[in-house]
Write a structure and sequence with these properties.
211 residues; alpha/beta; Beta-carbonic Anhydrase, Chain A; 48% helix; 16% strand; binds cobalt (II) ion
Length: 211
């Protein structure tokens, strides 16, 4: 059997198992999607959002990319954000990075990864520059990268707060709260490192007054 065929086989077992436990499981999901959470995570295969939070289909709206970045020109992410905030009315946005992130680590090197990845990782290099004093003082390389992972999550939460999508929802509906978390590959534990409640003030240059 080819490896991909195993996925299809396991899928059938899974579907049968769900129905055995709860006959109306799929019927219920068909009509409503009311997740409370938007998850912006790393594409890393070792950080599956539903599994590490023990959530079911229908509970988390998910967007993933390399190193969980929130880029203000990323139409893909902004479409997900807009839909989650304005249609699904989600209450919490979670940016979840992970210690030992390969994308973050790659950004700390001087390797040329060719244009597309260079473009993407440049955003993380900018974060390193902003926090260079703190990061350069950490002598152990793994610890330094792990701290950059935390700062990256913090910066991506702030990038969310800079968007008019979030600011409009904050002003009109006092939601969503923004959360920056980091998952530990070594112990499976999520470490909350940063939080922005709805209507937190940010640097005034980013605050829109005609929302
Ligand atoms: Co990663």
């Amino acid at each position: 059997m080819e490896s991909y065929q195993k996925l299809l086989k396991e899928n059938k077992f899974w579907a049968i198992d769900k129905i055995n436990n709860k006959p109306d499981f799929f019927e219920n999901l068909l009509h409503v999607q009311t997740p409370e959470f938007l998850w912006i995570g790393c594409s890393d295969s070792r950080v599956p959002p539903n599994e590490i939070t023990q959530t079911q289909p229908g509970e988390i709206f998910i967007h993933r990319n390399v190193a969980n970045l929130v880029i203000n020109t990323d139409v893909n992410l902004l479409s997900v954000l807009d839909y989650a905030v304005n249609h699904l009315k989600i209450k919490h946005v979670i940016v979840c990075g992970h210690y030992g992130c390969g994308g973050v680590k790659a950004a700390t090197t001087n390797n040329d990864f060719n244009q597309v990845l260079n473009m993407w990782l440049r955003n993380i290099k900018d974060i390193y520059r902003i926090h260079r004093n703190e990061l350069d003082a950490i002598k152990d390389e793994d610890l330094r990268i792990d701290r950059l992972v935390e700062l990256n999550v913090q910066e991506q939460v702030m990038n969310l707060a800079k968007s008019s999508i979030i600011q409009r929802a904050w002003k009109n509906e006092n939601r969503p709260d923004l959360h920056g978390w980091v998952y530990g590959l070594k112990d499976g534990i999520i470490n909350p490192v940063f939080e922005m409640k709805a209507n937190t003030h940010i640097d005034p240059i980013y605050e829109y007054d005609n929302l």
